[in-house]
Amino acid sequence: MESISSECTPLKEEYEKCFNKWYSEKFLKGDKEDACKELFIKYRKCISSTLESTGLSKTINNARPHIGSGFTEENK
Question: How far is CA 3 from the centre of its chain?
């Protein structure tokens, strides 16, 4: 599946590959150390940039209180 931005798709695929391997080979065997954290941070940064440039981040942030979300940009 493509990411929200074609620029982010390679990062998404790399993160998903890392996550699936980590989950099946490490997490399920008790190793909870997040081996894919740096990839996730890169992917999230790409997504955040896309959301900002399209104006979607403002829309999402405005909707959060209405759906009961406690997530804020400060606690990401």
Answer: 10
Query: What residues contact residue 76 under an 8 Å CB cut-off, 6+ apart?
Result: 44
Query: Which residue, 45, 39, 42, is CA-closest to 57?
Result: 45
* Cα torsion through 49, 42, 12, 74, rounded to 10: -60
pLDDT (tens, 9 = 90+) of the chain, 76 residues, equals 899 899 999 999 999 999 999 999 999 999 999 999 999 999 999 999 999 999 888 888 888 888 887 776 655 5
- What sign results for the dihedral spanned by CA atoms 40, 42, 45, 50? negative
Four-residue CA torsion sign, 34, 1, 43, 71: negative
